[in-house]
Specification:
By secondary structure, this protein is an alpha/beta fold. Helices cover 32% and strands 17% of the residues.
Amino acid sequence: MNRLLRILGGAMIVLTATAATEAPASTESGTIRVWSSEAMRGVVTRWQQGFRRHHPGISIVSTPSGTDVAMAGLYTGRADLALMGREATASEVQAFEWIFRTKPARVEIMNGSVAATEKSPALVVFVHPDNPLAKLTLAQLDAIFGYEHRRGADPIVTWGGLGLGGDWAARPIDLYGPDTTSGTGIFFRHAVLNDSRNLNWDRMREFSGRSAGRQILDALARDRFGIAVADLGSAGSGVKALALAADERGPFVNATAESVGSRTYPLTRTAFALFKRMPGRPIDPKIEEFLSYILSDEGQAEVGREGDYLRLPAGVAREQVRTLE
């Protein structure tokens, strides 16, 4: 309870530095092995240094092995924490469950970035600059890209289906997006298509690799009748970003540091910490101490200082702390 009180003791607001809540020194000792993506190296280093001030007996050994490897480190027993800029895939969870007979525990640790391409950036919908469209709902996006239309909207095949007239009305909507088996593609399918795997493949072009976002938007810039999903960091002058809303009631929101940090932007992404917690047994005290530090005002302030990832909203951080009890 004392730990919870000190974590929640200071007010925490999005994108504004707050006074860090000081934590008394811990009597715990040992080593925590953290596997993460290379993109998280900076923020993990900050957490290591800050945590060490309060817990000198606990060493953090960080291995930036890559997101796709981090979960393997966890279920093979080589890592104590897997820090990931995306949700664990079904196969990753299944592998962990096969070994430990339970699913991995997890907490949210920070928001993804607004535009840093390698740091879980928010997804943005783009059209050609000539396109008069300014906004879309997620249901409309599902109706455009998806085949099953799990959000309930009728299929949208032409620009006329979105209310555009003139020479736009009868033109099919050309689709551009990330490889749907990539972390970005899986997030898009989850957040927009309600986990459907069936897209309109006859009109869809996928791109993969580190430069996927740039390739997607370069293709869109050459296609007046296209629509694309990518990140702001890959955008040039030849495309236009649209405002998005969860439903027709709005509000329609553009991707900004404020809207992503507060999670009012519908396609904000999240980073997670996954770990082993056996049913009916407490978390390893060292792991609990480190995750509690990450979710504290001080730990979240380090996220802000890193400069690309965004700290969690105060209410979300409190919810995550409660899951550790």
